Amino acid sequence: MKIGGTSLDPLFIWKKKHSIAEAVDFATSVAATLARLGSGGYVAHVGKRPAKLLELYEREVCPFSRKVREAMSILDLDAIVHPCAPEPRRFRSVVEGYVGKFQIPLLVDPNTSSTVTDSDAIVRYLFRQYGDGKVPLALRMGPLTDATSKFATLLRISKASESPPTKEPDDLLELYSYEASPYCRLVRETLMKWEIPYIVHNVARGSPKRAGFAERTGKMQFPYLIDKARGIEMFETRAIIDYIDDHFGTNGRLKAN
């Protein structure tokens, strides 16, 4: 079953359909993308493809995780994402089991049996292993890259509020997304809030996956959520956020009780 349909591209449509607070929320998401000059918006430097999904332990409101997500969008890499809230509960022990302490971002690559920490080391690893070996300028400017990534994070710092983790989906949710999209960011922040693991299909501009996506869904619009366990596929940022909150967040927990 597919839900949603109308494109929400211009900000004035968002304002018309939603509250002023939501419009401001969207505007700061746009500003976060602009702060990084749209890094993660286009596919480039693509090399060999991993046979197995990468796994990423990260936090949406973490400037260092942002750099890794940008790299994965540029390289058109899919992954199982384990989003960690500001006070992580669900995945803390897993991360500590890998590296002896809680440290994110953390990349686990089953294709090479590699575990990599430190954002710059992860970025270099990804471009060496799955790209052409050359890290794009936007990700190799050292302090300037970190500063702009931190500024982008500050614009979204209100999303660092605490929420208790609730039930996980019966099957991993799948999200078609890419780092530079302000709409996709809002959905990823919601998944982080509840610490819900999911498969991300990165589909930045130039992604070869876009053609198959458009053929399957009938249009080119992101984000797009798939919940196989419930037979749900849906467009629309607000509809997806409401769905996640209702079924996996506090609302879902209350309904279960």
Automatic annotation (TrEMBL):
Q: Which InterPro entries does the entry mention?
A: Glutathione_S-Trfase_N, Thioredoxin-like_sf
The beginning of the lineage is: Bacteria, Pseudomonadati, Myxococcota, Myxococcia, Myxococcales
Name-wise, this protein is Glutathione S-transferase N-terminal domain-containing protein
Domain of life, per UniProt, equals: Bacteria
Among PANTHER family, the record links this protein to:
THIOREDOXIN FAMILY PROTEIN
Q: Where does the record place the GST N-terminal domain?
A: 52-134, 171-252
Organism (species): Pendulispora rubella
Which Pfam family would be a valid example here? GST_N_3
